[in-house]
Amino acid sequence: MGSVxxxxxxxxxxxxxxxxxxxxxxxEQHQANHxxxxxxxxxxxxxxxxxxxxxxxxxxLNLYSWQEIQRHNQEAxxxxxxxxxxxxxxxWADRHxxxxxxxxxxxGEDATDVFRAMHPELxxxxxxxxxxxxxxxxxEEPTYERNKNSQLVEDFQELRRTLETMNMFNANLGFFFLxxxxxxxLEALAWLMLWYFGNGWxxxxxxxxxxxxxxxxxxxxxxxxxxxxxxxxxxWNRLMHRFVMCHLKGLSANWWNYRHFQHHVKPNIYPKxxxxxxxxxxxxxxxxxxxxxxxxxKYIDYEKQHLYFYxxxxxxxxxxxxxLQSMQVMYLRKYWGDIAWVSSFYIRYFITFGPFYxxxxxxxxxxxxxxxxxxWIACVTQMxxxxxxxxxxxxxxxxxxxxxxxxxxxxxxFNDWFTxxxxxxIEHHLFPTxxxxxxxxxxxxxxxxCAKHGVQYVNxxxxxxxxxxxxxxxxxxxxxxxxxxxx
Length: 487
Description:
By secondary structure, the protein is an alpha/beta fold. The chain has helices at 18-33, 66-69, 100-105, 112-118, 122-129, 150-165, 173-197, 201-226, 234-248, 253-265, 287-294, 305-332, 336-382, 398-404, 413-419, 425-430, 439-453, 462-484, and strands at residues 46-50, 57-64, 73-74, 77-82, 85-88, 133-137, 408-409, 459-460. The strands form 2 sheets. The chain has a 6-stranded mixed beta sheet. Strand 3 and strand 4 form a beta hairpin. It is globular, with a radius of gyration of 25 Å.
């Protein structure tokens, strides 16, 4: 087809809409920066969009093929598709609240379901999308990439609409209030015991136990607020997230968001999911061990990595890896707000426990609690992913991407409490903004949909799930050994 001429007749709001001006700027940049394909011809044609009064063009949109869209999948050139609309998010990526890498992970792909999953306030999100619109799929193009099962995608979207009708995305504020009260009572009880009984070793051990429970439950509550699943307004979730993550736990909220959202949109996809990039200490899945083995890489004896997991991975995840990474990211990216909130965590501990232990003793107490919390959080977070499928990008539909990389653990009152409802990891990954007290209601519908389309839905006892972590590490180690000693 002939080359495309982009027309942009902006329709400004009465106050000279900033969104409209941004849209004009971005489209001009699109003309200048995105030249036709190698043959000098664009793979699309102009569609005139009529106004509501009959026939007078308001603006024009390019129509694109999937082949053309999939070319724009680089960090410096990112397009994605939402509800058949094509958006150039290249210039917006650095300002994206969820981090630029999340957008890059979906560049050149359909992002309809992930967009809906991660944004509870769709109207606000669409305001940011509007100036990034550059076109739409040509009429003859399928709504989703040809490798995806369109019936499965449509059935999943119908399931989401059903859950919305059932009010499964409405939070019970009383549930989360009681969860916060539990945390605060444990911290207050620890201080009262010190004040009444003194700081002898038995009391120190006992309050360390109480503070460990408080910190672990704070991890689950910050997870809820980070996913915007408590309040209707995102700003209140973000404020609460900073209070819990920074003030109660002493970790950066921004660091967690940017890391965790990447994991959510592409779980167990190498190298997009940062949670499975544990080299050089651990080799996960089937691909990474073979890669290291063939290259004769042996930083440690990976054949024994399942033993290192007990000695290093479990106790040091929180006090060393997460803590140092959080501090590094806050400093390098100048997250001054997070730095102030995290400082309040240490100030609070020094005021509360300093009179009993002094500054040095209080620091030891902080890191003792993180050390004790670490195996709890490590097991809960890793049991649902490490034993599951890991692969490079296969551009699967949203349901398959999440379910194949995730497993559930059987429900019980204790399991729900101990895991912060992350025993329903499948439902959480499919619907990240759903309040966790509703996962068990959604689970039967998800299981039924998976059975209909032949997608494996894994649900197992908790102890087996813990054991599967080690078994998966041993399996990966065996792959490394075979590749390393292969002649």
